[in-house]
Write a structure and sequence with these properties.
Layout (H helix, E strand, L loop, with lengths): L4 H12 L4 E2 L3 H8 L6 E6 L3 H17 L6 E6 L4 H9 L10 E6 L2 E6 L1 H4 L4 H15 L1
Parallel strand pairs: 1-3, 2-3
Antiparallel strand pairs: 2-4, 4-5
Helix pairs in contact: 2-4, 3-6
Length: 139
């Protein structure tokens, strides 16, 4: 493991408190993504400042205010949940690994993606608005 679990526990909890399911293995990721026809929100969590300042708050705001919700939402912690992170990213065809990373996967395909460069330094409201638009469109 890359980071001390006691240090990242609150970072994990920010997402699990929203009802997002934590995945730590490839099998857990596949359970949600392999055969799902419904939209699944996938959040690659991270210790970086843009995850704390932008990604996690944006996901929270989007899920709390969107009219439509994904059928499922999962997360993996980059650096600690290496197997789950790698498996989730295997579904992100055409996208480079990024931490943080927020995707909406439907019918096994990425229909929406925010990478670190789309998240870092942007107002939470702007990032959240993009997530909400994707949820309204694909859920």
């Amino acid at each position: 493991m890359m980071y001390d679990e006691t240090m990242i526990a609150p970072m994990r909890q920010e997402l699990t408190d929203l009802g997002i399911v934590e995945t730590r293995t490839a099998a857990e990721v596949d359970k949600f993504l392999a055969d799902s026809k419904d939209a699944t929100l996938v959040v690659i969590n991270s210790v970086c400042g843009c995850a704390a300042a932008n990604a996690r708050p944006s996901v929270a705001l989007a899920l709390q205010t969107a009219g439509k919700k994904p059928q499922a939402a999962i997360t993996a912690f980059a650096g600690n949940d290496a197997e789950a992170t790698a498996r989730a990213r295997s579904y992100f065809v055409g996208y480079q690994p990024s931490s943080p990373q927020i995707a909406l996967v439907k019918d096994g395909e990425v229909v929406f993606m925010l990478e670190r460069h789309n998240i870092a330094g942007r107002p939470v409201e702007d990032v959240s608005s993009e997530i909400k638009k994707a949820l309204e469109t694909y859920c």
